[in-house]
Amino acid sequence: MESNRRDSADATSSSSTTGEGGISGGGEALARGLSAMLESVIKDFDSKANDTLNSQNQLSNSLDRLVQELDQLLENAPLPFIVQHASRISSVKQKVSSLNLVLKSIQRRIDNIDQMLSTNITQEKTTSETS
């Protein structure tokens, strides 16, 4: 299977270059195809990242509510096992909050990459239409 990929890649690279070492129209088509494929993968990842972010936000809200309820319970009856569980839940809440920040950062980066790809595709279409 690996050799098939190499053979395919060799055939693609040899058919996409001209005798003078430049890239022909086949190379441009390959670049457009790769760009479209990457755009599709990034949009799929973007969708999954959004779903994960929404799920993490729901989890964070549930943990906030649980911590409030535990705090109320601790005020009424400060039992040692409740204090232990409250501490664990607070720790989980901090980890979820930290993970949410990382996910939001990743989401911003993906949005920037998607925007750059879209801009590049638009510029390529404009350039090819004027040629």
TrEMBL record:
Keyword Coiled coil carried by entry: yes
A cellular component term, taken from the record's GO annotations: BLOC-1 complex
One BP term from GO: intracellular protein transport
Domain of life assignment: Eukaryota
Biased composition (Gly residues): 19-28
One Pfam family cited in the UniProt record for this chain: Snapin_Pallidin
Keywords: Coiled coil
Keyword Coiled coil on entry: yes
Gene Ontology MF, one: SNARE binding
Region feature (Disordered): 1-28
Family: Belongs to the SNAPIN family.
Protein name as it appears in the record: Biogenesis of lysosome-related organelles complex 1 subunit 7
Protein's organism: Arabis nemorensis
